[in-house]
Design brief:
Low-confidence stretches of chain A: 54-93, 156-165
Distance between the termini of chain B: 19 Å
Number of helices of chain B: 8
Structural class of chain A: mainly alpha
Largest sheet of chain A: none
Radius of gyration of chain B: 20 Å
Oligomer: heterodimer
Low-confidence stretches of chain B: 1-6
Order of helices and strands of chain B: HHHHHHHH
Number of helices of chain A: 10
Largest sheet of chain B: none
């Protein structure tokens, strides 16, 4: 009966692992097609550089070992300097765009940058966060300008920043980032399960050899 | 009857753990993306995450105490690795929560900090957040078997079905 239960457990574990791997693969493909497969380290470096006022992001991303191994092709373009042409997807990555360039392009696209900046300040945000989103490649300047124009059209109904923890503040367009984080956790889980087997075997071998050293026969 | 009561008590704690861990995971995933939630919701969820995390530690306090006692004695490597990871995760989460509170803009707590200190705390908060994502991912991986075994408690009816099936098999 004990053998039967352990076999059943083994089958359940295997089934769960297969489901996990399938979810990771399918989820990864969907996120990649949406352009949401972002290297977390590059994103963090960009946010830090933006918040500390430095514009030279290209050096960090180019030197980053993770940048070279980016899992999505369009994310690799983030490591390249400006004026990289678009690939298959609509996301244009300009990894070194400065705040001045962004505000100039938004103004050209018809966005009232001062009003947007004031609104964002009231909501506890700043234009730097928009810059980091554009530089990470999640959205193009054109898409951002369209979104800002739509938001400013309904600006009179926007609640005050300190009062607002409402659902209307949620940017559902960014939901892909939330899904990416879940995908990342599941992918790491699958990777560790795969690595743990040989690692566990290796540890057992080492323990066995240390417990049962070779004994010389008596002469 | 007594067996049934004991079983029921055991299930309740496990179920509580499952629901709390689900809440923690959901809040964590949303909280990681300020662009998605907006700053106000991000800060509110951050506080909620801190409280839920503290509760999570309290619920597993027995494990913490028992492993700490025997850490340098007879202990499986896996348990040691698990312990070290959990300590790192604990430290990182605390630093995230504290730095988040210090740089908060919508919670109504107005700390007068210098620009340099604010920037440093902000960078710390960002780096800590990415590190927490990696540590949480490893933490989930280390407890994958528990998650797989107890996912069924999400849906109470599956427990009832398996109980009925077992009862039928006995007869």
């Amino acid at each position: 009966m004990i053998t039967g239960r352990s076999e059943q457990n083994h089958r359940h574990n295997l089934r769960a692992f297969i489901i996990l791997v399938a979810v990771v693969i399918v989820g990864g493909l969907i996120l990649w097609s949406q352009g949401d497969l972002i290297n977390p380290l590059e994103g963090t470096l960009m946010l830090i550089d933006t918040s500390s006022g430095r514009g030279a992001i290209a050096e960090e991303t180019e030197n980053s070992p993770v940048g070279a191994a980016a899992s999505a092709p369009e994310r690799a373009a983030v490591a390249e300097p400006v004026s990289e042409p678009t690939a298959d997807h609509a996301v244009v990555t300009t990894g070194t765009m400065t705040l001045e360039a962004l505000t100039a392009e938004l103004a050209t696209a018809g966005v009232d940058v001062e009003a947007v900046s004031a609104t964002m300040k009231a909501q506890g945000r700043s234009l730097e966060s928009l810059l980091s989103v554009v530089n990470s490649g999640r959205v193009t300047v054109a898409e951002l300008a369209t979104r800002l124009k739509v938001e400013s059209a309904g600006d009179s109904q926007a609640p005050a920043a300190e009062d607002s923890s409402e659902l209307q503040d949620i940017q559902w367009d960014e939901f892909g980032s939330v899904v990416y984080n879940l995908w990342f956790i599941l992918a790491v889980t699958a990777a560790i399960i795969v690595i743990a087997r040989p690692a566990g075997w290796l540890v057992k071998q080492i323990k066995r050899r240390s417990r049962h050293p070779v004994v010389k026969p008596h002469t | 009857m007594r067996e049934h009561v004991i079983t029921h008590k055991k299930l309740n704690k496990t179920r509580l753990n499952v629901y709390l861990d689900l809440l923690l995971m959901g809040v964590f995933l949303v909280d990681m993306e300020v662009q998605f939630s907006g700053l106000a919701l991000h800060e509110a969820l951050g506080l909620l995450f801190g409280i839920a995390f503290a509760l999570h530690v309290v619920l597993h306090w027995d494990w913490v105490v028992s492993i700490t006692r025997i850490f340098f004695k007879l202990l499986l490597h896996e348990s040691r690795v698990n312990y070290v990871l959990n300590v790192l995760l604990f430290i990182d989460t605390i630093s995230l929560t504290v730095s988040g509170i210090l740089i908060s803009r919508t919670l109504g707590l107005h700390f007068t900090l210098g620009q340099d200190v604010q920037e440093l705390l902000h960078s710390l908060h960002l780096v800590g957040a990415e590190l927490v994502l990696i540590l949480v991912a490893i933490h989930v991986a280390m407890h994958w078997k528990w998650i797989r075994a107890n996912t069924r408690y999400l849906f109470g009816w599956t427990v009832q079905i398996s109980r009925k099936r077992r009862a039928r098999q006995q007869f």
